Amino acid sequence: MRRRIGETIFLSTLALTLFVVKGFAEDKGFEFGPGTANPTSSTIKFAIPCHIQVATDITFRRVGETGTNSDVPIVVEYRQPGPSATTEGALVRTVNLTAKRSEQKTPTYWMPGAAAGCSIPWAVTARAATGNSSVGVFGSVRMSPYITIPSVEIEGGLISLAKGNSVTKNFGTSAGFGQHVIEVRGTWFHSVLGVPGPLPVRLKFELLKPDGSVAASDSGYTNFEINPCCSWDKLLVRYLNNQHISGQWKLRITNNSNDDVMNIAPKAGFYGACKM
Fold first, then answer.
1. Which of 2, 63, 157, 240 could form a disulfide with 27 if both were Cys (CB 3.0 to 4.6 A apart)?
2. Which residue has the higher pLDDT, 71 or 147?
């Protein structure tokens, strides 16, 4: 099994346009037919976050004699999560293929997100199209969730924050967030009478759930920081949201330093994942 964590794209939450963030891609192998562990079919399962569109492709081949007479028509079926981890859900895609001696790969297929996810997996079954295969068939399926977030905004514009004060801003909309990792960073400047100053200033960011509890927090310096004293300690709030939570999330920013701060610009990143 091969698992690859994709890139997280960070954009300013003050004026965020439509963007897509690729999450992880996971490959799992299948085999069926003579000489394999599965005489008739092979089922593999994937933990995919809920409500996230899924991209998938298939790599496959057969063993045996050369020539088309030994080629095997196969079927790969995708089922969404069912009512429990042991019960398969609805069939959402059937892919008909022909396994040949040379390795082949399908184009990328897209499937809608499911209402359940992570703890209740997708099931992918590969089998011969009719009867049992006369030769062994081997392959792998890759599945990758993609997130489309139309807008994630912090209310208001750039934030100024005097020493000893805090401010709480709405983060996103009342629709809430689904199952994915939320990452928040930020940039800001030391303020001297309303103009950027030279000093490193440490802030605290807290990500608040709709019920007001703290999901995650961190204290650190601006992501622009280059001062050797502090550049190793840049702020990063990171939280695995393992269930869909509706309602208004918030971001609380606290300045416990001895200096004023200006032009605070939080930045948000997301990727679909069931674990960090």
1. 2
2. 71
